[in-house]
Structure formats: C-alpha cells, structure tokens
Amino acid sequence: MKLIRTIILVVTCSLCFTAIAQQESQYSQYMLNPLLFNPAYAGSREVISIASLYRAQWLGIDGAPSTQNISIHAPVKRRVGLGFTMNNDAIGNGTVQTTDIKGIFSYTLPLNRDLSTRLAFGISAGGLFNEVNLGNLVVSSNQTNEQGTQFSPNFGLGLFLRNPKYYVGLSTPNILQNIIANDNNAEILYQKLVTWHAIAGIILQTSPDWKIKPATLLKINSGAPLQLDISLNALYMDKLQFGASYRFGSSASALMGYHFTEKFFGGLAFDNELTDLGGQSFRGRSFEFFLRYEFEDRKCKCSPKPRFY
After folding, report:
1. Could you say which of 39, 49, 162, 274 is the most buried, measured as most Cβ atoms within 10 Å of its Cβ?
2. What are the tens digits of pLDDT across the range 25-36?
3. What pLDDT is stored for residue 258 in this prediction?
4. Sign of CA pseudo-dihedral 104, 110, 116, 117
5. Cβ atoms of 36 and 28 closer than 8 Å
6. C-alpha closest to that of 270 among 287, 284, 258
C-alpha cells in the first residue's frame, strides 16, 4: 500500500510541478474515432454520428488518471462536414483536471470520378480549461494550497485521405504551445507542446464474411519520445469485431466490439501496462468503453451500413 501511494505521489507531482510538456490523451481504440485528434475526419461517416468514450487508467490505484469524451459530427453539405468534441482528463482525485472543447469544420475534395477516393481538410477551434488544486497533494507540512482554473485557446489542423479500402491521416489537435502557470506566473506547471498524429489503416476483404484491418498511429512530440501504436482487427459478418493492439514500450491491449444494430456499436479495450514507473516494475491495467450511435441516412432513408473505420 505504501508503494502504491508513493507511485501516485510521484506521478501526480511530476505532472503538476516538473513537467514542461503534456501530450494529448491516449486511447487504445483510436481507430474507432479519429475525430478526437483529426478534424478532417468530420463528416466522413456520411451520417450524423455520436460517439462517447470512457477510459480508466491503472485500475485499482487511488487517484489514477481517467478520461471521458463525447463527439458528434455530420456532413452538412456535399463537401462540408461539421463536428464538436469535448474531452475531460482527471488525475489525483481532482488535483489536475483539463477539459478540452472544440468546434470542427472540414472540406472534402473528390480525387476520382466515382468519388471513391476523397481528401478532406479540417480545422478545429476551441480551448482548454485547466483546473489545478494542489491542496489535494499531501507532500509536506508546508505544502501549497494553490488552486485555480485557466482557459487556453487553441486550434487544430488535419488531413484525411479515405477510400473504401484504406485511409491515411495527418493532424495536430493543438498548434499553440499553451503554458499553464500558477496565479502569479512565477512557476510553470506544464506546457502543452505541439503533437503530430499520423494514422493509417488498410481494409482487406479476405472472404464474404470476414474483413481484416491492420492500422497504426504514430505520435510525434518534441517534448517526448515517439509513440507508435499498431493494431490488427477482424470484422465478422459486419457484426462482431475483435483484435489486439500494441503500444511500443508501453502496453498491450485486447480489443472487442459489436454492432448491436446497424446504428449502434459498442467497443471494449483492456490494456496491460508494460512500463517501469519510478524505478519499479509496473504492471497496471487500464480499461476503455466506447459507444457510437449513427442516425438514418437522409439520402436513402435507410440505416447506415456498418463501417470498419
């Protein structure tokens, strides 16, 4: 128990006091909703799509990080898509909480005559609410009780190339390097640096009932090592989806999803952490729960066909 408290203290203090960079939230089911980090994805599902995700990091550890988000996007004209995302990260039982809200616009260009291949450009605008309550930390008898909320505006850019057989994307959710400081700006709590996301996937129809999708996500951040995720998912009869992913040097994940109807999809991810934390071998586990609902296609007055991305 003492070791667990020490780990949490080290992690929380490093986030609140000494970190000079903060990466974007991480998701094991990144392939299910790229809108969270690529605004060019808005409208690409060709119907009104609402999605929500909950992630619990390091199950069983008091004060461990958690993430909740919700998004909605849709095509509003032949080439225009609009969207909205809200993401909340919390750590240390209210010590640090960030809420990121964005409005999204995308514009899509067809690249061939049958419109099967399209390139979308996206931009997002919004900001980050940062709430820090250092009084929740029990560090020493002369600890600070400093608390406060700051708002930092930001913008994102993205490209998304898609075809029924593949997709490729490049984006940065935040192009401004916001600095989060204490009330008198005497001490930088952390700085949000630019993070680039490169995503790609291929859909392989191996039989009438089976599809296979290898996918990858690469994160590039000047203040942190490269982060590479690879995944392999299978889709059976457009209903049952399952697979696995691996985040190099960090975690391995089991993935599962099911199309309850043509409109409603649910996904699960279970991560086994493989990192060393604070000089100790750390084998924590994390959990993700994903839901998506899509409305009837207004053009054909029919339910949307299940999509693999």
Report:
1. 39
2. 788 999 999 999
3. 97
4. negative
5. no
6. 287
